[in-house]
# Entry
Amino acid sequence: MSLPVTTWLVAGLAVLFLVLTARVIQFRIAGKVSLGDGGDPILHRVIRAQGNLVETAPFFILLVFLAELQSPATWLLGVLSGLFLVGRVMHGFCLAFLKSNMPLRTGGMLLTLLPMAAMIVVDLAIVLR
# Structure
């Protein structure tokens, strides 16, 4: 069974995770901090960028995976996955690479939460049909 939307989504999120992890490592080495953030507010932001991705991505991946297993409507799953990925990039970039850019961060969270809410509806609609 082929799961192209889930595959592309996981690959894209994995690339983003590697970029954010490299950023955390870069700041840990520069600040000589092995655990925690060492009281460095910039390192704290970078860690949270990575952590927020890890906290949100698994739920969305699972929602897409379950829908793709049960429904042929891959175009909708692809659109929602693309929006989610763009949102995660916006949010991660804002926290890990910029000092402050609230519109980018806010937009990133909107493009994270709205597709997730839509995927919940899609999954429930598939089950309840």
About this structure: The chain has four helices and no strands. The mean pLDDT is 94. The two ends are 22 Å apart (CA to CA). The CA atoms of residues 91 and 108 lie 5 Å apart.
